[in-house]
Amino acid sequence: MNHFVIADNRKCVGCYACVAACTESHRQAGLQAYPRLFVTYTPAGIMPIQCRHCEDAMCALVCPVNAITHETNSIQINESLCIGCKMCALACPYGNILPGGTPVPGPELNVGNYAFINTPFQPDPMYLRQLSYQEQLSLLGWNIGQKTVAVKCDLCYFRPEGPACVSACPHRALYLVTDETTASRRHQLFEKMKQVATLAEKNLPVG
Asked: Measuring CA to CA, which residue among 69, 72, 59, 67 is closest to residue 2?
């Protein structure tokens, strides 16, 4: 079973701590300084979404240079092999892959800061920055001199402590789904069902 990160929309408050942690952790690892998850707002609630690491990942099947592969219970992208053709982004049924590339240095770019925002301290709300970022990473967008590669969740494979978004969430709305957590959750549900059955048994009317 592939591992993936999932969010509980009952706990998420849309603080964007996960987005910032994701961006910074990848920047420090020498990878594209873009977030691998996006906060969504719907009538049902607020929650970030990211790659589901599908068992039969279409993105890996359509990649012409085998830059996307199945590695240790996850789907990984090799940025050095990616040619930025965007086939994976078109194939992803969840829309969780976008093209990204470090902007060409210029007066409007603060090198070393978050590459997808001009400065991390601007007063604009995070959701407006995210909208601007998504427009910048449109499948049709391009900038002269900028090489783009596919950007998606890689479960922070380079961090021994696991995904940065999970660690950064102040409300514990994000958690990593693995074989162990699935088995633990199944056991918890089984124990809860046993408790409910016991209580129901005790409340049965006496013949």
From this structure: 72
**86: closest CA among 109, 59, 113?**
59
Which amino acid belongs to residue 198? T
Single-letter code of the amino acid located at 57:
A
Alpha-carbon distances of 149 from 24, 80, 126, 192, rounded to whole Å: 18, 9, 24, 46
The pLDDT tens digits of the residues spanning 155-194 come to 999 999 999 999 999 999 998 988 887 777 666 666 766 6
Q: If you compute the radius of gyration of the chain from its CA atoms, what whole number of angstroms results?
A: 20
3-class SS string, 76-108: EECCCCCCCCCHHHHHCCCCCCEEECCCCCCCC
pLDDT tens, position by position, 81-98: 999 899 999 999 988 898
Overall pTM surpassing 0.70 (yes/no): yes
Summarize pLDDT for 47-85 with one digit per residue, the tens. Answer: 898 999 999 999 999 999 999 999 989 999 999 999 989
Residue closest to 10 by CA, chosen among 193, 172, 185, 182: 172
CA 137 – CA 41 distance, rounded (Å): 19
Secondary structure element (H or E) that encloses residue 74, with its range? strand 74-77
Q: CB count, 10 Å around CB of 144? A: 5
First to last CA, the chain: 49
